[in-house]
Amino acid sequence: MNFDGYLQLHRPEIEATLERLLPRPDGPAATVAEAMRYAVLAGGKRLRPLIVIAACEAAGGAANDALAPGAAIEMLHTYSLVHDDLPAMDDDDLRRGRPTLHKVFGDAVAVLAGDALHTLAFEILGRYPERDDRSSYRADAVVTLARAAGVAGMVGGQIADLEAEGRPPDGERLRWIHRHKTGALFSASAEIGALAAGAGLPAREALARFGAAVGLAFQIADDILDETSTAEALGKTPGKDMAVGKATYPALYGLDASRAAAREIIAEGVAGLREHGLISDPLDSLAEAAVARSR
Q: How many Cα atoms within 13 Å fall on the side-chain side of residue 292?
């Protein structure tokens, strides 16, 4: 099954799960709940929950067990976008083809909505899948996401990215930024999919390495699109990386070499899964989509 077919198969249930798990905009906290829903239900590629589902299936689990964990990761990812768009960070006006959250609700509500999505993600991971034989795996999933989202993962990558602005690009530092800012959450998505399936440590580690490779290639592709695409195609403002002097693969290596690097990384990630007997058509197509995407 190719990526489009896999997305078409699972997107309705991903969207339904997000809708079900997000708070309703009722009561005194209605404004924050409405903002959370605005940010999450605006669309998006849903690549991270798809990786959770595909990894779960590859490890012998059922897609249904991966839906809530996948939704949790999508919420945490969305929180990072909400905060990243704020004036104190990237100061962006467009996200997923719509005005950014702080442009609609204001900075204070955007901060609180991001905080609420962050905490809700861990609540969901601590509750789902609701099977008695998955209690230890739920605990492991919470730890896995916390590590991937914090200073050892996404947040660490984001601060290194901010501090690299305007400096001469350095290959080693750039790879570190991309592996942490983006790759860590992809790696956690694949490992949490394995946890939802009740998989053992070898499968978890192999899928985590695959996810890390997909995340790094995905970010390289994002760097390329920032230079070559349009706001209409991307759903966000292109050209900002170059404008603020961000460290990117094209800035350091050029477009052609960056494309080649992304494909080499994906090939290594797929080969690693094949060695462990965990490769599947959905995972293969997800890896290809990460580098072949146009938005």
A: 10
Q: At what angle do helices 107-127 and 30-40 cross, to 10 degrees?
A: 80
The residues, any chain, with a CB within 8 Å of residue 57's CB and separated by 6 or more, are: 63, 66, 193, 197, 280, 282
**Which structural domain, as residue segments, surrounds residue 229?**
3-292
Q: What is the pLDDT of residues 214-253, one digit of tens each?
A: 999 999 998 899 888 666 655 556 556 655 667 788 888 9
Q: What pLDDT is recorded for position 91?
A: 86
Instruction: Assign residue 90 a region (left: φ > 0; alpha: ψ between -120 and 50; beta: otherwise).
Output: alpha
How far apart CA 142 and CA 146 sit, in angstroms, is 6
CA 155: distance to chain centroid?
A: 13
Q: Is there a contact between 153 and 184 (Cβ–Cβ < 8 Å)?
A: yes
Strand segments, DSSP code E, in the chain are 94-95, 98-99
Q: Round to whole Å and give the CA distance between 211 and 217.
A: 10
Q: b vs e for 183-210, b when ≥16 Cβ sit within 10 Å of the residue's Cβ?
A: bbbbbbbbbbbbbbbbbeeebbebbbbb
pTM attached to this predicted model: 0.91
Question: CATH number for the domain including 266?
Answer: 1.10.600.10
- Looking at the structure of the chain, the number of domains it has is 1
Q: In degrees to the nearest 10, what's the CA dihedral of 179, 68, 198, 5?
A: -70
The answer to whether the beta carbons of residues 282 and 54 sit under 8 Å apart is yes
**Whether pLDDT at 122 is above 90:** yes
Q: Which two tokens stand for residue 119?
A: 């905490």
The pLDDT of residue 258 is above 80: yes
